Amino acid sequence: MKCVSKEWFQLISSPLFKNLYSTTKTPRALVVKESTKGHPVLFGQPLSRTLFVSTIDISTGETCKEFTKDIIGSHYSFILSDNLILFEKFTAIAVCNPTTHEIVHLPLPSQPTVRYRLGYHQAKNEYKIIHSFRRSENYDLGFEIITLKDGGPVPVTWRTVKFERPSPIRWYFDNTLIDYVDADGAMNWLVDARQGNKGGKTIFQLEMETERFGTIGYPPDHLLEENESEQLVNIQGSLCLAYYSKQSSTITMYLLKDRSDQIWEMEYKIELHDINKNVGNDLRIIGYLPGEDQNGEILIKTNEMKAILYNINTRSFRTIEHIWIGWCKNLYFDRFFTLGKK
After folding, report:
1. Phi-psi region for residue 155, left (φ > 0), alpha (ψ -120 to 50) or beta?
2. Which residues, 6 or more positions from 198, have their beta carbon under 8 angstroms from its beta carbon?
3. Which residues have C-beta within 8 Å of that of residue 25, sequence separation ≥ 6?
4. Residue 120: which H helix or E strand, with range?
5. What's the Cα-to-Cα distance from 320 to each of 63, 108, 182, 233, rounded to whole Å?
6. 172 exposure class (CB count in 10 Å sphere: 0-12, 13-18, 19+)
7. pTM for the complete prediction?
8. pLDDT tens digits for 67-112?
9. Is 162 helix (H, G, I), strand (E, B) or coil?
10. Class for domain 2-332, per CATH?
11. What are the residue boundaries of the structural domains of the chain, listed by start?
């Protein structure tokens, strides 16, 4: 029995098995909820709470509880990626993989600021966690990074990343960060770098292979209209810049075809007025669900917290009436990524 168990453990721990498992699993909608039920209260404030992490199968509506964690105190934050979850409390940082139920603690950063982002480097099957902080009063930014490899170990220190600030970039400290996504082998921030009448919106990115910073300009043929919102999306691994116009009830999606030459192409234009005239202001693209024969679908959350699926092959859409995705943050990819021990 021990021999069988050992062989089985070796099988499921092998890179081939992990890769096969990850590629055959359809991503699910990630839902994070908090509850203070049953927790002690002092002066009307809960002293602790429970964090519930679940996933939803969009096709069936089946909900699967992935992970539950009790958190002491009210001052904490958590940051989500497509698989890992980062918890921060009083500069103490922990990373969790809901698939394996592992939790590891990271070393303390050099500065006590809650500015973290996670990125998955698919080519190397590793995660990058980047921490940004202000080094001076003139908005001089500093960055440090940790790389998590499958099987560990967890690094004991953060590495400084050289950063030459594009002028002007004040985003994290003037509330000018609009959106973030990791795609196309890079960690991408959509930022508003304007100062007065100078500058404009741009995409600020860190290439995960080289750990070098750069910027990408907007598609040259698009001007943001009034009552139009924008976001970054990962579509089949490619960086996508999406615009939603409330006036025309239309989503326009540009894909970055060439990062070095900054070539954008308008890939999809989704007309929503025929399906629902009241999709609202808070419409958001959650992610891309792959299908057979390139018959994938884009998952969209409406103002009514309903799910809309847009088929990129047939260019048609359908609503999923039986699923409420109001708590959905992004898609979750089930990976046997082993965090190891610090």
Report:
1. beta
2. 168
3. 333, 334
4. strand 116-121
5. 15, 43, 27, 21
6. middle
7. 0.82
8. 787 877 666 677 888 888 888 876 778 898 888 888 899 999 988 7
9. coil
10. mainly beta
11. 2-332
